[in-house]
Amino acid sequence: MLLRFIVVFTGISHFIYGISALFDPYSISEYSRYGFSQERIAIGVFQAVFGVILIGGLRFDKLKFLGASGLSLMMVGAFATRVSIGDSIIQSVPSVIYFLLNSIIIIKPLKTLK
After folding, report:
1. pTM, full prediction
2. Can you tell me the distance from the alpha carbon of 42 to that of 44, in angstroms, rounded to the nearest whole number?
3. Are 59 and 80 in contact (CB under 8 A)?
4. How far apart are CA 12 and CA 35, in angstroms?
5. Is residue 111 pLDDT above 90, yes or no?
6. Distance CA 86, CA 11 (A)
7. What is the dihedral of CA 23, 100, 106, 85, to 10 degrees?
């Protein structure tokens, strides 16, 4: 039940954040600050799509693995970006939390395969 909640919460969060990267003026300015104004649309689309794939994983386990893996990699990149531009720990923490949540989504089912 907890894993299901994590999947839904994480999937919806990433979908919303990905869509906001496309249209929200504040998000658009943040991507410029990160140095990713040219990549913003691709990053937003990937994040939204991985969020949807993750939700699809509620029905198909392979989708859950794919979505969580893609989002985990994106969160590693997000954390590295935050560190490289000198953001505070508070600004960097969400990427770490989402990385950990996605890692739980990946690892938990693998443990049940033993």
Report:
1. 0.91
2. 5
3. no
4. 26
5. no
6. 28
7. 50
